[in-house]
């Protein structure tokens, strides 16, 4: 499916694990993150600054950024999260919530096994890691009681110098809380 989409969009074909795969390696990674909520207009406009640090042989980095939310019913959650996020999720309540979100993030990366290759022996990629990364995102979320639906579009900087295109993707999330 992925290669079919790549052919349709004139992108390079993915050759798979036989060509690019990492060798088996035990991973030890520690992640610590904080997220705050700064309220400017109660239940209508807030900012969610965050900070995260990751240390380990797979990924070592520090990340900081913020999300700006404008809408209705935002008082009881920390925002719609993308799939790869490690932050808190929505909190169920009885009311309607609908809002738009804009976010910016910056990272300083010391190590990324998935770009650079194995830490201890094994495969090495030979590409040059970009140590300073950014991410810009915007989207919307609607929720009622125990159900929420959201979409966030993200544009990321190139993760390594030889990368041909900037990575852009959308995340759709349907949450049913119980």
Could you outline the blueprint of secondary structure elements for this entry?
Blueprint: H1 2-8, H2 17-20, E1 29-35, E2 38-41, E3 45-56, E4 59-72, E5 96-112, H3 113-116, E6 132-144, E7 147-156, E8 167-176
Antiparallel strand pairs: 1-3, 2-3, 3-4, 4-5, 5-6, 6-7, 7-8
Write a brief structural summary.
This protein is mainly beta.
Structure, explained:
The chain is mainly β. It contains three helices and eight strands; from the N terminus they run H-H-E-E-E-E-E-H-E-E-E. The chain has helices spanning 2-8, 17-20, 113-116; strands at 29-35, 38-41, 45-56, 59-72, 96-112, 132-144, 147-156, 167-176. Strands 1, 2, 3, 4, 5, 6, 7 and 8 form an eight-stranded antiparallel beta sheet that branches. A hairpin with a 2-residue loop joins strand 6 and strand 7 (147-156). The longest helix has 7 residues, at 2-8. The protein starts with a helix and ends with a strand. 15% of the residues are buried. The mean pLDDT is 85.
Keywords:
178 residues; mainly beta; eight-stranded antiparallel beta sheet
- Spatial shape: globular
- The number of strands is 8
The major sheet is characterized as: 8 strands, antiparallel
Terminal CA distance: 33 Å
Radius of gyration computed on alpha carbons: 19 Å
Stretches where pLDDT falls below 50 for ≥5 residues?
none
- SS field, number of helical segments: 3
Proportion of beta-strand residues: over 45%
* SSE string, helices as H and strands as E: HHEEEEEHEEE
Summing up helix and strand content along with how strands pair, one would put the structural category as mainly beta
Helix share bin: under 10%
Average pLDDT score: 85
């Amino acid at each position: 499916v992925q290669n079919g989409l790549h052919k349709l969009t004139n992108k390079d074909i993915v050759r798979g694990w036989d060509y690019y795969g990492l060798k088996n390696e035990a991973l030890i990674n520690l992640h610590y993150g904080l997220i705050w909520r700064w309220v400017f207009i109660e239940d209508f406009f807030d900012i969610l600054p965050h900070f995260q640090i990751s240390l380990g042989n797979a990924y070592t980095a520090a990340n900081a950024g913020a999300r700006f939310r404008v809408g209705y019913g935002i008082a009881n959650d920390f925002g719609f999260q993308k799939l790869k996020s490690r932050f808190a999720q929505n909190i169920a309540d009885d009311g309607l919530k609908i809002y738009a979100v804009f976010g910016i993030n910056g990272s300083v990366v010391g190590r990324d096994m998935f770009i650079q290759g194995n830490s201890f022996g094994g495969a090495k990629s030979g590409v040059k890691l970009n140590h300073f990364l950014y991410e810009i995102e915007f989207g919307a979320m609607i929720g009622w009681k125990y159900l929420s639906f959201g979409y966030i579009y993200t544009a990321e900087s190139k993760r390594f110098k030889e990368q041909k295109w900037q990575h852009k993707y959308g995340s759709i999330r349907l949450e049913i809380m119980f």
